[in-house]
Amino acid sequence: MKALFRMTLMLACTSAAVYATAQGAAASVYKTKCALCHGATGAGDTPAGKAFKVPSFSSDQVMKDSDATLLEVAKNGKGKMPAWHDKLSEDQLKDLVGFIHSLQKK
Prior knowledge:
CATH superfamily: Cytochrome c-like domain
Distance between the termini: 40 Å
CATH class: Mainly Alpha
Largest sheet: none
Number of strands: 0
CATH architecture: Orthogonal Bundle
């Protein structure tokens, strides 16, 4: 029983460390590639965001979007937003979608 508890605890700690590393990497990519338009908080309140009418990640419109839709937009762009499929890996794009969720205010 103790061995099972230790193994479960070890697995939980490992999962948390992997998640934190992915979030840190996604935050770094977001800061360098996305924040210029979307802003540090995802509100789209930067000069570029206002000029391009970037919606807040917390807007009803974006909150309704599925992860698949957000991933599609990140990959292929939308409106004036550039496509990132040729500059970021699939895993980086998926991690960005997760990071976007961390910015959303529900």
